[in-house]
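Researcher: Please generate the 3D structure of the following complex. Treat every line as part of one assembly.
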Amino acid sequence: MKTRIDDQSKPQTMIQEKYTKRYQNLKVAEALSNNHLYPFACNELSSIIDLGYSQLPKDLKAFIFRDCLSAFRLLPDMNTSAAVSAANLLVKSVESAFPKQKKNLAIVEFKQAKVALKRRTKSHDEHIDLPSLPQDILVHIFSFLDVYSLLSSSQVSRSWNQATSEGSLWRSLFDLHFSHKVSIHIHPGFDWREAFKNEYILYKSSKMLRSGRGYCSYCDSVVWHDNLRCPKKQCRLKSGKKPLDLMLTHQVVNYLLGTTSSSDESDSEDEAVRGLWAYPTLQ
Amino acid sequence: MSESDMAIIKPEMMKSYIWLETSDGSIQQVEQEVAMFCPLICHQALQKGGGSSKNNAISLPQKVNPAMLSLIFDYCRFHQLPGRSNKERKVYDEKFMRMDTKRLCELTSAADSLQLKPLVDLTSRALARIIEGKTPEEIREIFHLPDDLTEEEKLEPLKNTMDDPRIRLLNRLYAKKRKELKERAKLKSIEVEERVDERSVDDLLSFINGRDHKVVNTSKSKKKNKKRKEHKNGTCKVSNKDSHNLHSKQRSVDETSSSLGGVSNLHNIEDDIFSKKAEFEDGYIDDEIDPALKEMLDREVEDFARRLNSSWVLSVGQERQPVHFSINGNGDTRRLTGPAARHK
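Model: Done. Output below.
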C-alpha cells in the first residue's frame, strides 16, 4: 500500500523544531556576549518580536525570552551608548508584545541593568597619561577596523584623525566593499577615501550594513559578518576577495519565520547616509 | 663564535645569557634563546656583538621599560619553544592579551620598538577590538585622549583644514546659522502674535517690524565683514537709543490697550531681542543654546556641509558675501532689504 506523505501528517513538533533550529543557527545568543555585535543582536531581537512574536511556536518564544533576559543582564558589561540605545529599543518591543508575566520579568531585569550601569564609575578622574602611539602603529590598528569604527576613530583626536586619512586603509575598505561591483581608474594623487565615500553613498551601504548580517553561500547560512566576510575560516579561504551578500534585518526575520514581509523602514536614506560622514552611529 | 657553534656548545655548557639595559639604566640578563626572539636584540647581538657582558649590554629603545620587558620576554619564552601546538599558542595569546588598555598601549609601543611583529599584530588586534563599535567620546575616555579637533574638522574629515577656505567659510556660516535659527525662533513667536492682533495693533507692529529689521541687519552686517565694525557699532548705539524710545512708546501703548493679550508678549520678545543685541556687541555668541535647539542647528549645519561638499561653486572671492539661507517665514522677507540683501 502506498502511503501518501503530505505536510499535514507531519507532527507539530517537527515544524516547531524547524523554527527553533533556524533560530539557533542564527546565533543571536552568542552575538550578545560580543561587545561589537551586541547592538546588532538586540536590534534583531527587537525586529523578531515586533514582526511576529505572537506567531512563534512555543519553544521559540521561550528562547527569545531567554535571550532578552540575557541581553539585559549583559548590558552593564557592554557600557557603550550604542548598547544602551539598542537595549532601550528591545525593552520597548518587549513592552508591547510580551505577555504580562514575561514582560514584568524582563523589565525587572532591564531596570537592574540600568542601575548597575549607573553604578559603574566612569573615567576615574586619574590624570593618566597614556603613552601616545606612533602613527604607523595607529594605522596598523585601524587596518583591522570596519568602516564605522574607522570613522569614529577619525573624530577622536588630531593624531588619530591624521592616521585615519591614510590612503591604504581606505583602499582596502574600498576593495572589501566595492571591488566586485566597481572598477576604478587610479591615478597619482587618487583619494581613496573620497572614492569610498562616493561609492558608499551610491550603493546606500549604510542601510545594508545596519543589520550586521550577511548570507554566506559557501556554508549556506545567515551569519554575523566579520567586516563583510564569513566568520568561518574555510569560507573566507574559498571566497577570496568576494564579500558576503549583506542582508537587512527584516530579511533575516523573514528567513526565520518563513514569511515575506517587506521592510517598513521610514527613515530617510539621505539623512542616514549623510549622518555617517558627520556623526557615525550604529543605528 | 658563530651561531651554529653556540648551538652545539649550549647543551653542554650553562645556558648563555644576554645582557640588556633598559631606558631607566637598569641592567639585566636574559636567556639567550628568549632574547633572540626579538629581531632588534638578535641583530644587535650578532652584528655588533653586544650583550655579551655586563659592560657591553645592549641598550634597549626608550619605550621599553622593565615591566614591559618582562611581559615581552614571557611571551617570547612561551613562543620560542618549537614544540608548542598552534592551539596552545592561540590559547596562550588570548590569555596574554587580557590586560587594561594602558598596558596594552605600552606593550604595543615596546613590541614595535623591538620589532617583534607577531606581538605587535596581537596587541593591535586587541586594541582594534576595543575600539570597534564605540563612539568617539567613548574612545576618548578609554584612551585618555584630548578632544582637540574643531567642530568643523569632525564634520568632514579633511587633511589641510587650516588652509582650506571652504572650512573657514563653514566656520563662519556655522555660527551665522546658529544665530539665524535663534532669531527665527523668536521672530516666529512675533509672527503668531501678529496674526492674532493684526487689526488693532497695526501701527505698533509695523513700527516694531521696522525696529526688528534694523536690529537684525545690524547683527548680520557685523557677522559679515570686520571692516564694517565701526559703522555697525555706530548703528548699534543709534539703535540703542531708538530702542529706548520704542520701549517707552510701547509701554504707553500697553497701558492703553491692555485688553489685547498679545501685546505684552511682544513686549517680552522685544526685551529678548534687545538683550541679544547686547550680547552681540560684546563679541561673538557664546554657546549657551539649549540642547534641543543645538541639535536642530547641528542638523542644519550637517545639511549645509553636505550641500557645500556636493556643489562646490563658491570661490574665495565670494567669501565676503555669504549665501543667504532661504528661511521660510515672514521674518526673512522683512529682513532682506538694504545692504544685507544679495540673493532674493
